[in-house]
Specification:
Elements lengths: L1 E4 L4 H14 L4 E4 L3 E5 L19 E5 L7 H13 L4 E5 L2 H5 L10 E4 L7 H4 L2 H16 L8 E5 L3 H9 L6 E7 L4 E8 L4 E7 L2 E7 L4 H16 L4 H7 L11 E2 L8 E4 L4 H15 L9 E5 L9 H12 L2 E4 L9 H9 L8 E3 L3 H11 L5 E5 L6 E4 L2 E4 L2 H12 L1
Parallel strand pairs: 1-5, 1-6, 2-5, 6-7, 7-8, 8-9, 13-17, 14-15, 14-17, 15-16
Antiparallel strand pairs: 2-3, 3-4, 9-10, 10-11, 12-13, 18-19
Helix pairs in contact: 1-7, 9-10, 10-11, 12-13
C-alpha cells in the first residue's frame, strides 16, 4: 500500500509507481484523479472469474468522482482490487481526504510527499493549516499503520518537505529523502527535450544513469520519487531504472497533441501557480534547445470557479513572465461568473499587451493555434485529462485535446 500526498505531482507519481510495479510483474491498482484502475501484467492471470467469457483483461477501470473517495467506497475498491489479484495499490491522498479522515482505515507501507504550494486555501484558510493536514498523513496514518518496514519518502528540494522531514524524524518509521543534488536519492539533469530527460541519480545502492520519456524537472522529481518508492517496497532498483525508458506517459500531463505537422502543442493539468511555473520553465528550457530557437511560447489558461481565488493573479504573473503570449479563458467556472474570474486573473498582469482574453475556451484554444507560428510552443493548461467543463450546475463535454486535435486536422 502506497499513499501519495502533496499539492502537485500526485497523479503522475501514482502512474509511475504503478508502471514500475507492473514491470516487476506486480499487479497494481490505482485510485486517483483520473480514475480507479487495475492493470494486470501480461504474464499474470487475474484471480476473479467475473471478467466474462473473454478471460483475462490487462486493464479494468472505474470512473472517479473526486480524487480520494469516501472511506466506504475506498475500502470496497481495495477489496475489489484484492479479489482480482492485485498485490499492490497506489492512492492519491488529498488534503481534503486527510482532513475528513477518508484514508484513516488504510494501513500503508509507503507514504510519499511531493511538494506543497498554494492551492485549496478556500478550504484550509492558510498554508500552515494546509501543511498541518498533510503532516497528519505521516504522524497519524502512516505511523498508525499495522505494516512492518514502513517508509516515508520526502522531497527535500521543497522547503515544506524539509520541514516535514524534520518533524517526522522521531516517528516509528524510516524515511528516504530525495531532491536536486541533495537527499538519499539525489539527481542531476544532464539533458532535456520535449520527449526525453537524461539524468544522473545517486542512491544508497549506488549511481544510475536514468533515461525518462518525460520532460521537466518536476517530472524528474516524480521519477526519482517513484524509484525510491519501489525500492523501499523491496523491488529491484536497477530493473526499475531500466524499465523507466519505456514509460508510456500520463493522460493530460504535458501531453503532446497528435498532429501530422509535428506542431509542439501540449495539454497539461497545471492549475496551481507552482504547477504552471514548472511546466512553463520546462518549455522555456526546450525553447532554448536546437530546433526551437526563436520560437514563441503561447499559454492558454484560466482558473476554476468556487476555488482558491488568491492564486488567480499569481498565475497571471507567472504566465506573463514565462510566456511570450497569453490567452486567458474559462476553466470550470462552476457557480461563478467566468468574466469576473478572468478580471481577477488579469489583475496580475503588468502589461496589457502581454495577454488577450477570450471567455469561450474553445475559441481561446483555436486563437492560439491560428495565430501562433508553426514552430511555436503552445501550452493549454488547467484541465489536462478532463473531458467536461462545468458551467453552473451543468457539465458539458469538453476536451482540450479533442479541440486542439480537431483544429490541427482542419489545417492539413
Amino acid at each position: 500500500m502506497c499513499g501519495v500526498t502533496g499539492t502537485n505531482g500526485k497523479t503522475s507519481l501514482t502512474y509511475l509507481i504503478e508502471y514500475l510495479l507492473n514491470a516487476a510483474q506486480c499487479p497494481t491498482g490505482v485510485i486517483g484523479t483520473i480514475d480507479h484502475h487495475l492493470r494486470i501484467p501480461a504474464n499474470v492471470e487475474p484471480l476473479a472469474d467475473r471478467l466474462g467469457p473473454e478471460g483475462a483483461q490487462d486493464l479494468m477501470a472505474w470512473p472517479a468522482d473526486g480524487t480520494t473517495p469516501n472511506p466506504i467506497l475506498l475500502q470496497a475498491r481495495l477489496r475489489e482490487f484484492w479479489n482480482l489479484g492485485a498485490k499492490a495499490a497506489v492512492l492519491e491522498v488529498t488534503s481534503h481526504a486527510l482532513d475528513q479522515k477518508r484514508a484513516d482505515g488504510v494501513s500503508f507501507d509507503v507514504g510519499v510527499f511531493t511538494n506543497l504550494t498554494q492551492d485549496h486555501l478556500d478550504y484550509h484558510d492558510s498554508m500552515e493549516n494546509y501543511f498541518s493536514t498533510k503532516v497528519r498523513f505521516f504522524t497519524e496514518i502512516l505511523s498508525g499503520s499495522q505494516k512492518t518496514n514502513k517508509m516515508a519518502i520526502i522531497n527535500v528540494t521543497d522547503p515544506w518537505g524539509q520541514k516535514l522531514s524534520e518533524l517526522i524524524r522521531t516517528c516509528d518509521f524510516k524515511q528516504l529523502t530525495f531532491g536536486r543534488e541533495t537527499g538519499d536519492f539525489k539527481y542531476r539533469i544532464e539533458n532535456m527535450t520535449t520527449t526525453e530527460t537524461k539524468f544522473k541519480l545517486q542512491t544508497p545502492q549506488g549511481q544510475a544513469d536514468v533515461q525518462s520519456p518525460l520532460s521537466g524537472e518536476h517530472n524528474v522529481q516524480n521519477v526519482v520519487a517513484a524509484l525510491a518508492a519501489v525500492s523501499a517496497a523491496g523491488f529491484d532498483l536497477r530493473k526499475a531504472v531500466h524499465a523507466m525508458v519505456k514509460f508510456p506517459g500520463i493522460p493530460g500531463r504535458l501531453q503532446l497533441v497528435p498532429n501530422s505537422k509535428g506542431r509542439p502543442v501540449f495539454v497539461d493539468y497545471a492549475h496551481t501557480p507552482d504547477g504552471l511555473e514548472s511546466v512553463l520553465k520546462t518549455l522555456r528550457h526546450v525553447q532554448s534547445q536546437g530546433g526551437h530557437s526563436g520560437a514563441k511560447i503561447w499559454t492558454v489558461f484560466g482558473c476554476g470557479g468556487d476555488r482558491d481565488s488568491g492564486k488567480r493573479p499569481l498565475m497571471a504573473e507567472i504566465a506573463e513572465r514565462l510566456s511570450d503570449q497569453v490567452i486567458v479563458t474559462s476553466d470550470n467556472p462552476r457557480m461563478e461568473d467566468p468574466e469576473k474570474i478572468i478580471d481577477q486573473i488579469v489583475a496580475g498582469f503588468s502589461k496589457v499587451a502581454h495577454f488577450n482574453r477570450e471567455v469561450d475556451r474553445k475559441k481561446a484554444i483555436e486563437m492560439a493555434l491560428k495565430f501562433s507560428g508553426p514552430n511555436d510552443l503552445i501550452l493549454i493548461a488547467g484541465k489536462g485529462h478532463e473531458e467536461t467543463q462545468q458551467l453552473g450546475n451543468q457539465k458539458i463535454h469538453f476536451s482540450d485535446v479533442e479541440v486542439a486535435e480537431s483544429f490541427l486536422k482542419g489545417e492539413q
